[in-house]
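Data availability (excerpt). The following record was deposited with the supplementary files.
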Amino acid sequence: MLPVLFLFLIPVGGGIPAGVLLASRTGVPWPAAAGLYFVSDLILAIVFEPILRLLVALGRKVPVLARISAAMRASMERTAAHYGGVGAGPFTLILIAFGVDPMTGRAAAMAAGHGFVAGWAIAIAGDMMYYAVIAYSTLKLNSYFKDPNTAMWIVLGGMIVVPVLVRRLKVAYSKTR
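Predicted structure:
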């Protein structure tokens, strides 16, 4: 089970599809695999939170970091606008974590005033929903292709292409209104 956890700890890329396929191949039941993914999120929280707090503290004192912080805040506001607006509640913050990543979800939750436990609960909820979608898609595709590499590459491609298509369709739809 440790190799599955290590794959889930990969911050970007094929960690979820590869971990899900490895878990399936080695006989790890899906609830245990989901539990391992949850544990990877808890590890992420423990590692990322001090870095986030340090950056916030330094952003108050170092001019270059203050400008980067202002740019990040503006970026967060634009991201939140895509998911329901600035000053959004927990559901919108969960969608940010689902649509971007748990670190961005935690940063948005922190900007909205949520502390460590509530902020990470929001970020992890969104990330676990994302895990469920990717894990289910990966396992379904693998049952059709019977080749883990093919399934993984299709899911990875979808992880990249689908958000781009959704954004383009959203823009095209808003222009027709």
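Summary of structural features: The two ends are 51 Å apart (CA to CA).
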